[in-house]
UniProtKB/TrEMBL annotation:
Transmembrane segments: none annotated. Belongs to the glycosyl hydrolase 13 family. Keywords: Hydrolase. Residues 20-409 form the Glycosyl hydrolase family 13 catalytic domain. SMART domains: Aamy. InterPro entries: GH, GH13_cat_dom, O16G_dom_2. Pfam families: Alpha-amylase (PF00128). It comes from Streptomyces thinghirensis. One of its GO terms (molecular function) is hydrolase activity. This is Glycoside hydrolase family 13 protein.
Amino acid sequence: MAAVHPSRTHDWWRDAVIYQVYPRSFADGDGDGTGDLAGVRANLPYLAQLGVDAVWFTPWYLSPLVDGGYDVADYRTIDPAFGTLGDAEKLISEAAEHGIKVIVDIVPNHISDQHAWFQAALAAGPGSPERERFHFRPGRGENGELPPNNWPSQFAGDTWTRVPDGEWYLHLFTPEQPDLNWSHPDVRREHEDVLRFWFERGVAGVRIDSAALLTKHPDLPDFTEGVDPHPYLDRDEIHDIYRSWRAIADEYDGIFVGEVWLPDSERFARYLRPDELHTAFNFNLLACPWDPKRLRRTIDDTLAEHAPVKAPATWVLCNHDVTRTVTRYGREDTAFDFETKTFGTPTDLELGTRRARAAALLTLALPGSVYVYQGEELGLPEADIPLDRIQDPMHFRSGGTDPGRDGCRVPLPWTAGEPHSGFGGATEPWLPQPAYWPRYAVDRQLGDPDSMLALYRTALRLRRDTPGFGDGPMTWLPSDNGVLAFARTDGLVCVVNLRDHPVELPAHSELLLASAQLDADGRLPGDTAVWLRG
């Protein structure tokens, strides 16, 4: 029997492989064109055979879906498009039978404008207790016609909307997502109750959206670039919230994953202190270009910022907000930045796919946990969405210059010969699939030992069963310029060649896995990674 890495017996989250499901686009169980929980339940064997430890679901709650479900109208109700609360409970239970844990998404910074609280606030009027749960303010200017402050939006556009009685309310995202007032006890109490609600239904963890944005300066002063403390980002009082949340999670042996975008490594690490969040997304690697020096520095910086609080790093190549890896890595600029997204950026998908395969082995060999966004294991590219079918508010709030995030959210292809590549029934999916989508279908890849899916399945099996992977130390090895080489424990070695010509492999006793074939002389080709036993 294969040896089991010691960390597999405790603190599963320190080295887990977590698969991100975007429910609208994973699988359609009832054939109405929208993915749902029935579709996920039907494909739990697929996820188990892939070899993931947990599944993170982006919001499945009742929502008008103005922002892909991140505008929540009721945290205790499943949106009818996805199913029912009973369906969610069955999914959690059945996933556990397959050895898969479930992580749900909580959006604490804001709610939907259709939420009962906000509707009550609108009806109650200025000065009411109902409005104190939000950030309502009179406007500036002679007649209150100007917004209360100049805060920039997390999306393009304004951050304040005026209501008919003359007051304005704050929304760091869209007008349909009013920000909550986290200094109000009702807001604290409600979210603690919601955490308990889902932990009691068996979820193993909670991912926290926009985790550094919750608390605001009580005076809501104007924003001035470079002036600290920031009026709404990463304020010190936010840590008291997460300490209270951690006490709840500890009652249920649950874990937290924070979406924390911060350039300051010391402040980032504060969220990962032993009495706060367990892990946080590492966006540095996701944004990093396919460049050996930049990658090595990003890896070093990530491990260094986690070390003081003894938290495991997380490695992420793509998610529901980001240009898909094979497309990004096939471009001249292989980095990712929301500010630089434009229509019509050329890409070499063959090159991007080769690099994405190598990047998969790189991330899966690093210390810590790994997130795999649905469809990455199929090598899906970013899809071009016809202008009249785009739904993402980022596109509209940019005045049409930003292509938005729909291109990475296109429904998955399951069966090449079926309508809409087997995503559901005869109804066209909520986002159109490209004509070439069948070539990436699961059924085709299952029969191809050289497919992206075969690579992921083999890599995840080896990572689970082979000593040396997961959480623990790593050591850089001497290597040529343009080559990354590092050792883990138990003789495990990972080598990634980012040069444009082959290089010699270090001495080894066994080749465990390669992202592409070695050349005729046994050398490692460019944009290729291998796992070796030393």
